[in-house]
Amino acid sequence: MSASAAARCHRCGAELAAGDEAIDVDGAGQHRLANRGGLVFDVRCFGHAPGCAAGGPATDEDTWFAGHTWQRAFCRRCGVHAGWLFRGVTRVFFALVAAPAPARGSGGRR
Ligand SMILES: [Zn+2]
């Protein structure tokens, strides 16, 4: 079994990025990000996210990763906001909001 699960849309379940596209950024594959409004997001980083479309203006305002601009990234299937696309001089990556862990203790099938 793969150590890294694919990133999936939290609304429609579409695959956003394959598990083997997961990458470490600044030493970790998962980051907890808080925006100016106090919302907290647990995100995983991926080098490619074919299931996502970036949209909106690119900006470096309040960027979470120094030297990188960001845009919002949306699910291609349903359009929900799924994370962010970061662009730096030497790398481009997606930070996708991790789906909340299921509350149920049994199962684990999708
Ligand atoms: Zn979706």
Q: What is the helical fraction, as a range of percent?
A: under 10%
- The figure for the number of domains is 1
Major sheet description:
6 strands, antiparallel
Please tally the β strands and state the result: 8
What does this 3D model show about the protein?
By secondary structure, the protein is mostly beta strands. The chain has one domain (7-66, 76-97): Peptide methionine sulfoxide reductase (Metal Binding Protein, Guanine Nucleotide Exchange Factor, Chain A, Beta Complex). The protein contains no helices and 8 strands. The strands form 2 sheets. Strands 3-4-8-7-6-5 form a 6-stranded antiparallel β-sheet, with no helix packed on it. Strands 1-2 form a two-stranded antiparallel ribbon. A hairpin with a 5-residue loop joins strand 3 (30-34) and strand 4. The chain is globular, with a radius of gyration of 14 Å. The model has no long low-confidence stretch (mean pLDDT 89). Zinc ion binds next to loops.
Question: Which features does this protein show?
Answer:
Metal Binding Protein, Guanine Nucleotide Exchange Factor, Chain A, six-stranded antiparallel β-sheet, 8 strands
Q: What's the short story on this structure?
A:
This protein is an all-beta fold and 110 residues long. It contains no helices and eight strands.
